[in-house]
Design brief:
Elements (H helix, E strand, L loop, with lengths): L1 H17 L1 H18 L9 H20 L1 H15 L4 H16 L5 H15 L4 H13 L8 H12 L6 H23 L10 H6 L3 H8 L12 H26 L2 H4 L5 H19 L4 H6 L1 H26 L1 H14 L4 H12 L2 H14 L4 H6 L14 H9 L17 H22 L8
Helix pairs in contact: 1-2, 1-16, 2-16, 3-8, 3-12, 3-14, 3-16, 4-5, 4-6, 4-12, 5-6, 5-7, 5-9, 6-7, 6-21, 7-9, 7-22, 8-19, 9-22, 12-14, 16-19, 18-19
């Protein structure tokens, strides 16, 4: 059992060294060793979640190709440039909201150069808004009705007897994550030295070439002309999200007889997302080559492969050793059920995907007897991959900051994202847990 666990961890570690796509593929090697080498019974790949991700990412990719994403970014830029002195607070709120809307944090790549440009022109140390904005773009995943992590949580929870809906999940995660982000932003407000008081920075800009590189660039989307088709695509996309949330609300109020006539939410989401995609293609004159070559669609398909391999590997291992896991962990989780948050966080550090953490670890958590409300409360803890700064959005943010204040430290872990990441993730987890304690007091009696 220990040897096989080491094989699982080795596959995750090696995969993380090569990137998200390799995580899924190299997990296949670990799976092959467990199945063909040790004779374990293969688990089940998370097909329901994968289908939803494909539908949602395809819809978001077409939205990006239509120019609709540019319009959303432009609206965010207008807000930031109107209040540049508050960029450390407003920037993470903008990246958070964009992720909530489109279900992926990779939209941050377009907005981050704008955040840097505004900070430099206002004389604000770019590290302050940039680091927390990058973190916020990932925090928003557990607050999006179409994100893999949320859909997987609802789907797996319903399959394990906890009848939670998407709106109920968001009513916990959104206030919890916003509380964590605001605290992280406030902690970043005076972080580091101001640019005019930073001797290292002032020494660097004495070089004319470096001064021109930092102050001679302008990043903006305001000069882009947003056409009617782009705006129509945004309205179609938002309408699809509203319909999904509306159907989820129906689950909360309709009778069982009425619910039996409706498709399950995982099927409904796929149908609505594919339909919205079709309407955008037909009504908005979308170039489909741009849709499949865009950052959103590419990153989403990479996430599909990662979740496919990681979750299948985890399900195979934990499924074969479920009884032993119960014996080892039941005592701890029975007395301290919230401690599963530590497990979620540590696994996220390894596999760089909140959706994959939920798909791989949530079934185990339910099998250990942890109540659904507890798991809902600690859902924000599935974001831990800021800990090792190898995630694409963090690396991109470092490269976008022309001043060099957003950085990866000499000792790897002393990087710009550690402080806002820890504050945000653990504040959100604590607040989420407290919210569920209030909403479901019966589950927490005596804990």
């Amino acid at each position: 059992m220990v040897i096989q666990l080491l094989i699982v961890l080795a596959a995750l570690y090696v995969g993380s060294r090569y990137g998200s796509l390799a995580l899924g593929a190299i997990s296949g090697i670990g799976l092959a060793i467990l199945v063909f080498g040790f004779g374990l019974k293969p688990g089940n790949p998370p097909t329901d979640v994968i289908y939803i991700i494909i539908a949602a990412v395809t819809c978001a990719g077409v939205l990006q190709a239509s120019g609709g994403m540019d319009w959303l970014i432009q609206l965010a830029e207008k807000l930031l440039r109107k209040h540049p002195e508050r960029i450390t607070i407003l920037a993470p709120l903008c990246t958070f909201l964009l992720t909530v809307l489109v279900g992926t944090g990779h939209v941050v790549y377009t907005l981050m150069p704008i955040i840097v440009d505004i900070a430099i022109k206002k004389g604000i140390r770019p590290e302050r808004p940039c680091a927390v904005a990058s973190v916020a773009s990932q925090v928003g995943i557990t607050c999006s009705p179409i994100a893999a992590a949320v859909v997987a949580f609802v789907t797996i929870s319903n399959a394990n007897g906890y009848g939670v809906t998407i709106p109920q999940t968001l009513m916990v995660t959104i206030p919890a994550c916003l509380a964590g982000l605001l605290l992280a932003a406030l902690a970043s407000f005076r972080r580091g030295k101001d640019l005019d008081k930073d001797p290292e920075y002032q020494k660097r800009i004495q070089d004319p070439k470096i001064h021109k590189y930092i102050y001679g660039s302008d990043a903006t989307t305001l000069d882009k002309v947003i056409g009617k088709n782009a705006k129509t695509a945004v309205f179609i996309f938002l309408a699809a999200i509203i319909v999904i949330v509306g159907l989820a609300f129906c689950q909360m109020v309709l009778s069982e007889e009425a619910l039996a006539k409706l498709p399950k939410m995982n099927i409904a989401i796929q149908i609505i997302m594919l339909s919205a995609t079709a309407f955008m293609i037909m009504l908005c004159k979308v170039d489909l080559k741009n849709a499949v070559s865009g950052a959103v669609w590419k990153s989403g398909m990479v996430a599909v492969v990662a979740i496919y391999g990681i979750a299948w590997l985890a399900d195979t291992y934990f499924g074969n050793y479920l009884d032993q896991m119960k014996v080892m962990l039941t005592g701890m989780v029975s007395q301290y059920p919230w401690s599963i948050a530590l497990v979620f966080f540590l696994v996220s550090v390894l596999i760089n995907s909140q959706g994959a953490v939920v798909v791989a670890m949530l079934p185990l958590a339910y099998s250990l007897g942890i109540p659904g409300p507890v798991l809902l409360g600690v859902l924000p803890s599935v974001y831990g991959y800021f800990f090792i700064p190898n995630y694409p959005s963090d690396i991109a943010t470092v490269n976008f900051d022309r001043t060099g204040t957003t950085r990866i430290g000499k000792y790897l872990l002393n990087h710009s994202f550690m402080m806002p990441g820890l504050i945000s993730a653990w504040t959100a987890t604590l607040v989420g847990y407290l919210i569920t304690c209030v909403i479901f007091p019966g589950y927490f009696a005596g804990l």
